[in-house]
Amino acid sequence: MITSQPNRLDPSTIDREELDKVFAAFSQPGHVAFIDKDGNRTEIPEPIYHHLMRIARMMQQGQAIVMLPENEKFTTQAAANYLGMSRQFLVNLLENGDLPFHKVGSHRRITFKDLIAYEKARDSKRRKSLDALSEQVETAGLYDASYQGE
Description:
By secondary structure, the chain is an alpha+beta fold. It has helices at 16-27, 46-60, 76-83, 87-95, 112-139; strands spanning 8-9, 33-35, 41-43, 65-66, 73-74, 102-104, 107-111.
């Protein structure tokens, strides 16, 4: 249930020269600050500076940015799309207690924060499994480092 507020930054809507100037400002050593119309200077806190720098870099590379608060609520279909799975598989995860949700009437809703946590845990579990499998293959002497493929 993504909000209808504009939360997408599309680099094609910004003049390329302006985008390059913003990226260059964030790329310079030192710190970037805001200066208001009266000339008052406000330093950008370090965590916000790094986040804005990343946004500037991605937009300079032509990538659109979508910003969502952690408490944004997703429908089961939107959550399934985000995680790259079927809606039914996601519903099974919800009903098994693998992913927290709440109901709005009879409809399930999942917060973005919970989707991110599930995604990180799932990816970590996959990485550990792949590492273990790789170690087994190497231990068994089945890995041929000289193989180039065809």
